[in-house]
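Practice problem: predict the structure.
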Amino acid sequence: MTNVWNGMVIFSTTIIWTLLLVSIALVTFGYIYYLKWAKTPLPQLDDQHAPFVTIMVPAHNEGIVIVKTVQALLNFNYPHDRYEIIVINDNSDDNSAELLANLQKENPTRNFKVINTDSVTGGKGKSNALNIGFKSAIGDVIAIYDADNTPEPNALRYLVAELEQNDEYGAVIGKFRTRNKDVNLLTRFINVETLSFQWMAQAGRSQMFKLCTIPGTNFVIRRKIIEEIGGWDEKALAEDTEISFRIYKMGYRIKFQPAAVTWEQEPQTVDVWFHQRTRWVKGNIYVIVKNVKLLFDPKAKRIRFDILYFLSTYFLLLTALIMSDVTFIMSVSGYAKVTVPGFSNTLWLLAIILYVVSVFVSITTEKGEMKWSNILVILLMYVIYTQMWLIVALQGMYLYIKENVFHLESATKWYKTKRYK
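Answer:
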């Protein structure tokens, strides 16, 4: 039996270390991307020839935040006669319709539309809402913002200017920041997570493979692409990842422009965080299962890294973390005998050090984040946040199997993330 426990330790350590080394590589190349970007002039836009943009905002019971979001969109530093705003107020039962109607009255000269759906036409999820909004869109470029976002004035300008510079770009994504990061320890975790994700996952992959994944907000995409692919997949909870794969299959690239910044509200309680992240896990598993066959498709070679990365994260890493936790608990309780403690303990200590250093390097790209308190936050993330993610991944896997294998519950509905004033 000792050989079994030793094998579990070696397997879990090998998998975790492999993915850690991948993350370190992404951080390294992400920092190279950052250094190059910092020396590159920002893309310029000719106002007289600026393309017409349709900004779409899917919203379900967003009365707490929707006014601030629309006001930020109305204040974009982009020719006001060259963009429209469409808010899809999707089967809301709060005061969203009244608030949006008041905003329309206050801005009679602006291209601002509101589409109010009911339980028959709407209420079926973000992808369905976007498809409804797209039917009324007239822009050659489509921009998407979540209802809790307050983008900076130049965000749209930078995104569109970047898109116009290269016909190979099918979409351009910006950066998102946590506007309520100082509320509690959880929001500090999320702040570090979002900052490190953008430089590890977006900038690193962009530098290494010219590969990015669309986030759910703060991006622009060419209208003709959405028309060609037939809109958003309404079965996909992670519609952003799903549409990214289809863009690459068409031969386009996705560009990351960090100067385009939006500030978004993040969960402030573990319960809200858990439900939001579970939805993300389910959505990404759906995308993995849907696209795993592309590993063998020559036309999809550009996205093979992403497919392998997602597969490794949600299956291999999940298995390795479970094995690691089980072995540790059984060993401490005296039910398991592990004879490779030196191998295990030395590598785990080094892994912690490398994890902290790599994440800290990532967040130093942002002003005000290079502080000692964030090192403590990162250490706590390693101990606490990664275990929280393990529980989320297991729950997401269980719900995916329940809904998509046994068809016990419909996945095409709004999963509401609680907002705060």
